[in-house]
Amino acid sequence: MTMRDTDRALVQAATAVVKLRCRSDRHTVATAARTADGRVFTGVNVRHASGGACAELVAVGAAATQGVTDLETMVTVGDRGREVLAPCHRCRQLLRDHFPSLRLIVGPLDALRVAPIADLSPGTGVPAAGTPTP
Ligand SMILES: [Zn+2]
Question: Where's the CMP/dCMP-type deaminase domain (predicted)?
């Protein structure tokens, strides 16, 4: 899928949040998620020995707090220049179940692309076979 201007803006939103809010070992990743009508919700992860919470889930919860139950596009960016990160196994499973038509922005910053959540294998941490490597 082709990157839209709004997709690039979503990457910029997540990048801004990670630079502003992820300055300790507690918070190391930021997610930005957009609805079909353009509303954007963000979240940062919460690291803890108990397992903590991924940024994707915090963003989903932030959207739900505002009554939003459908997300169109999501991107996650790591701190300290780690660029765009793919969701973990647990998040991929949850995102597939809750938002089956979700678009995920993946890949290196110089070659970002959009992948349907259905095309990403939940178990591997990398795109499923047949999907171009990000
Ligand atoms: Zn996760």
Answer: 4-128
Residue among 122, 114, 124 at smallest CA distance from 132: 114
The residue ranges of every structural domain in the chain are 5-119
- Under 8 Å between Cβ of 42 and 57: no
Question: For residues 131 and 133, what is the distance between their CA atoms, to the nearest angstrom?
Answer: 6
The structure's pTM equals 0.88
**Range 5-119 classified under CATH 3.40.140.10:** yes
**Which active-site residues does the annotation give?**
56
Q: What is the pLDDT of residues 87-112, one digit of tens each?
A: 999 999 999 999 999 999 999 989 99
Convert the pLDDT of each residue in 52-86 to its tens digit.
Answer: 999 999 999 999 999 999 999 999 999 998 999 99
